[in-house]
Amino acid sequence: MFNEMYQSESVIRNHYNNINDWLDQMTSKVILEKNAEAETHFRNIGITFSTNNETARERIIPFDLIPRIFTYTEWLRLERGVIQRAKALNAFLADIYNQGEIIKANIIPKEIIYKKKSFEPSMFGFSPPRDIYSPIIGIDLVRTGPNDYFVLEDNCRTPSGVSYMLENREIMMRMFPDLFHNNRVTPIDDYPTRLLQTLMSLAPIKCENPEPVCVLLTPGPLNSAYYEHSFLSDQMGIEMVESTDLFVEGKYLYMKTVDGPKRVDVVYRRIDDDFLDPLCFNPQSVIGIPGIMDVYRTGGVNICSAPGAGIADDKAIYIYVPEMIKFYLGEQPILDNVETWNCEKEQELKYVLDNINELVVKEVDGSGGYGMLIGPKSSKSSIDEFKTKLSTNPKGYIAQPLLDLSFSPTLIKNQVEGRRVDLRPFCLIGEQAQLSSGGLTRVAMNEGSFVVNSSQGGGVKDTWVLAE
Amino acid sequence: MLSRTAEYLYWISRYMERAETTARLLDVGYRMSLFPNPSGYNNEWESVLSAAGAIEGYKNKYDTIVQKHVEDYLFFDESNPSSVYNCILNARNNALVVRTSFTPESWLAINKTYQEILKLKEQKFTKSDLPDLTEWTIEQVNLFRGSLSSLLRNDGYNFLFLGLFIERADNSARLLDVKYFVLLPKPQYVGGNIDNMQWSILLRSLSSFRAFRWAYDGNITATKIADFLVLNNNCPRSLSFCIQNIVKHLTNLTCSPEKVGRIYNNLKDLNTKIQEEKIETIVEYGLHQFVTQFIRKISSVDNEIHKEFFN
Description:
A: 2 domains
């Protein structure tokens, strides 16, 4: 068991000393007040989950006051590891939508790529600007020891959570300015600027504008990440559009403005592939911009992330990421994968069924902590239920050992207690590759829980990277 | 600016202005209800409902007109599209979409108002709480308006203020009309003490009582008050002031001069007329008729703004 703050029961890790002193002098009254202040702040700025029922009160994610801290050296390794991985994933996408070298080299079997729903045949033979398919990648990491980090999953489509990373920092700086006087915390507030630079550096071939016009495409206010969409477009100073604001005419994409049509160069889309273009993907879709794919393929607009980028974060492809790093970059992977059994393979399925009590079984297409089985924590009946599911649909599942996620000190009813955490830093790749100087730390607020997802009672923390 | 953004901004200030008017109307009713009610007068609450354009909806829901129900209906009722609650909810939902197009302060002002009205809605109120509710609403709307002063003076700003003055023009006209709903049945009361008392209640409800005293000497007369609320360019709620500001924010728009031109042409006559008209002529013609025509004209300008800019 690894604790982020305590080296042993009585010894505090050096970089947590200041926080420990700060915690010591905080009374329960102050903690209560600050918790209330944070909650009011989050409600006021509207960083909430929206629900379909507009009159119901919106939910906010629990925020824990104690920051999670990385030293400069610790972060340096994560930074190199995440960027390495993000580069390999983009190289993989460029490869499979073109020559398919990795398949020819017998490293990844072609069936698991070309038969997947997230593989997009219409992308075949097309190369997006700079060969970047996925310019914003969120990598979910867990820690089990001082130097032991594992990648749980890659998010190559439209990773969310970065607004929490930024707002968590804002509220901490507002409530506890002294903490930031006494600790050298690397700022993260330049993330939106860097994101905009990244998007602008990915302008399409036919764009003549030295400052390409970027927009953020949102599904609308009912989407659970809507706050983030408006937050990011605001911070970047770009329009947040819905698909009805956009239309194709001739070889270009335009948005409807009060001045008439205005050409759009880069679309940072936060909607799924299926809803991009009813002419190309889903004819039943009422949202989407008819013809946008034609404009895209002829270099009139760039769509970030590229349609079909989702194949790179498929749970079956995940297994091969370390191989990709070696194959495309000629490097050794800096961050490890979690050992994963692909139930599609007969032998591995047998192993999973025999050892299910010790394993975590996940749906290949699942997310949000739903549809998974944590073997060691489950009743016999739910284990049996999963055994049946596995036998009838082995393709739909993977299994991993239960990792002993690190503990981070967390305020539970005014007492400091250890709770398990993960981390999602955000990697940007355009003209250059860079990592946010921090990330989103999610914390499983329930005692003993391994599930950090907000939909399952998870909370969030500010994440610090100390300056050198 | 996106057409949709312009539309949402326009409607945010319409909703906020309407919330204030509805609250002020309730205040008019409340004050009138404190004075003796000579037989033959319409029920003051009925005239409030009529002026709010809510009489039909109300009657579908309740059989009798009593203060408690009128309050509920105009302030909190979710089935009344113009209730203060719905205005704030709609303004907030619009603001959620265009929050990137105005200042964080404006968003905060609207969202805090929304958070508070959710709490207010859960509490139980008695008759005497009505002035507090009105005051709260006016305060919240002022907070929002104040936040607009730090906005960039761009088209978004002008759409916000176009919405505000279109709504206010319509609302002021309707408030003027309440007076008529109250008095119409018995023409012999026109010009009497009760008549004047009610005019001054109207002034107070438009927070214009002191302003009126500054602007006019001597007795409070119906003609002076009508002049003040219809033609006086210094009164920020007069019909004339609203029209001037609609013209100003319309012609300040930098987008699509030809669209602006078309709408302006339609508005020009009304503007000229209201600047040159004498109050005596209007009263002679019939204030009620004048006001009704005015409301119709404002509605057609609103339609044109939608057609030209938001489609």
